[in-house]
């Protein structure tokens, strides 16, 4: 029997990037793109490499472009780290695994390094497959933490809980990463919001604007850890946007998210060095009448549009910046 599991791309609706700083966020899963795992029993544990894991290139320029898009390691380190952490979790919780092995392969349609969390999607899908294969239950509120430490402790990737929470819970989720909650129980307060309450959303991404999120976050992390009050204040204001959006959605005022999303991005610009190329994409979307903010660390934006005419304008205007516009499929 072949086990097939999947995890989806994500977009930060409000509150990002406060999630790594005990803030609050709302995120959606974007089912237009996903990572999938196929796993079946075999005599030995075998990880099947994908084309991006191979070390043969057409030319020096092919190698350069591959590294720029995929990094140096492809997906194999993610799979190895995820399997190790799953084994660690079982051992630490006295879960005895049966003596059987498996072959695993992964696939992903999530655009790389544009803030849609392609790496964590692979790990979430892997954990789901391993849980099925070994018949192990990991509480859903614990699973995002396991996925995060797989990346941070095993691979040295800068990561927060937001991406892993939405990929584990799916749909639309409000997250409160209260420091006391995180430190006492290892997870925050996660509340599902009915996606039918959401306004009309678009997502636009441009791989030419991609940034590795760890590099984007490093300076702010240092300033935050130093206790710089302006950084702490701005991150608090960004978190408040998520709380205000939650209230607006639950009270039937989805239109309020238009200004909240714009303000979220404007606050971000106060403490982050946002490249002009990214700002141009944001401004082009706003010129169409839509709201616009980063969906992650850069390269992808998200916002609200009014009607099909405005959506068509977004298609046309953002294409000038090599950006593809989609309507996110949220269930």
UniProtKB/TrEMBL annotation:
Task: State whether keyword ATP-binding applies.
Answer: yes
Residues in coiled coil: none
Q: Which UniProt keywords apply?
A: ATP-binding, Kinase, Nucleotide-binding, Transferase
Pfam families per record:
GHMP_kinases_C, GHMP_kinases_N
Domain of life assignment: Bacteria
> Start and end of every GHMP kinase C-terminal domain?
246-321
Task: List, for all copies, the residue spans of the domain called GHMP kinase N-terminal.
Answer: 94-171
Protein's name according to its UniProt entry? Glucuronokinase
Organism expressing this protein natively: Dyadobacter endophyticus
